[in-house]
Design brief:
With about 300 residues, the chain is of the alpha/beta class. Helix content is about 35%, strand content about 15%. Among the domains are: about 80 residues, no CATH class; about 90 residues, Potassium Channel Kv1.1, Chain A.
Length: about 300
């Protein structure tokens, strides 16, 4: 949500979102005013249905302003102004799926992604179904982008279809900006799928019966020999208690997350006669939520692609 809008901050949206029959006004992040109909939005979105079921301001008919108890509600032409975080192009595209006008065209996954995100945010089921089909339509031209977006939003069917095409065309090592919005686990499962002919049960989520995800044992294991170098200065301990001996200097050069992590003041080391859960063999222990399989894949990528 942005700052509270005033009638001087915005410009009116284009038709059909400028009709006088509207009963509320959305103000986008780039200050465009969309006059919309709450009844139509309530039918399309359970989020808006719940919002509009809340008690509304009682207007004073003499001057079109809210009564004293709702004096903080900003109005324009007697209609409440509701700021939303979406840009005007995103909101207009989304609303056109709801209004009785031709559906908008989406030329790329880059255009589709923020609209799909907004549809999911507002729980607009029909728009979500349409956009999922549109996403699938980009598989021939934007395979890895579709896979990343599908995994980001938990669309297993679209992710599986994209993964099959990625494997057949050997595109798993390509780079697209959408890789930044998916998890290491989703990318790792794609790499594993492309290496083997076996069927992947899930791309968006780790298998529920994966033994690698079970951490009920207190035993701490060692990683493969590449990450068992005694000259390392830091221990990364994974979710399933596997220790990776790493060099903090290398990690800080390849990851801003690790750079920020290692810049945090560390606890004082205990003497040799004292036990410490934060250090082992004079090395700090950094606990991470990823499993050893995911970390093994990520660190190999870092080493092979400096």
């Amino acid at each position: 949500m942005g700052s509270r809008p005033t009638s001087l901050d915005f410009v009116p949206a284009l038709p059909p979102f400028n009709k006088r029959t509207a009963d509320i006004i959305f103000i986008t992040s780039d200050n465009v005013a969309f006059r919309v109909h709450s009844q139509l939005l309530s039918l399309a979105s359970r989020i808006f249905e719940g919002m509009f079921d809340l008690p509304q301001p009682v207007l004073d008919g003499s001057d079109g302003q809210a009564g004293a108890i709702f004096s903080t509600q900003v109005l324009h032409d007697g209609l409440p102004l509701i700021p939303v975080s979406e840009r005007s192009d995103v909101l207009e595209t989304l609303l056109r799926f709801l209004y009785p006008v031709p559906d908008p065209t989406l030329a790329s996954v880059k255009e589709l992604d923020p609209v799909l995100k907004a549809a999911l945010k507002y729980d607009m089921l029909e728009a979500i179904d349409i956009l999922k089909e549109r996403l699938r339509g980009f598989i021939k031209t934007a395979l890895l982008e579709v896979y990343c977006i599908a995994c980001c939003y938990g669309f297993e069917e679209q992710a599986a279809i994209a993964a099959a095409h990625i494997r057949s065309r050997d595109l798993q090592y390509s780079y697209v900006p959408q890789l930044r919005q998916t998890t290491a686990g989703c990318y790792f499962r794609l790499l594993q799928y492309c290496k083997t002919p076996s069927k992947q049960s899930s791309f968006c989520h780790p298998p529920s019966d994966s033994s690698d995800r079970v951490a009920d044992s207190s035993a701490v294991l060692d990683a493969n020999p590449l990450f068992d170098n005694i000259q390392a200065d830091t221990i990364l301990r994974t979710f399933n208690n596997v220790d990776f001996l790493v060099h903090s200097m290398v990690l800080t050069q390849t990851s801003t997350v690790f750079r920020d992590m290692f810049s945090i003041p560390q606890p004082e080391r205990k003497t040799d006669d004292e036990q410490s859960h934060d250090f082992e063999d004079a090395r700090p222990i950094v606990r991470i939520t990823e499993t050893s399989i995911v970390m093994d894949s990520c660190t190999f990528v870092t080493i092979e692609n400096p």
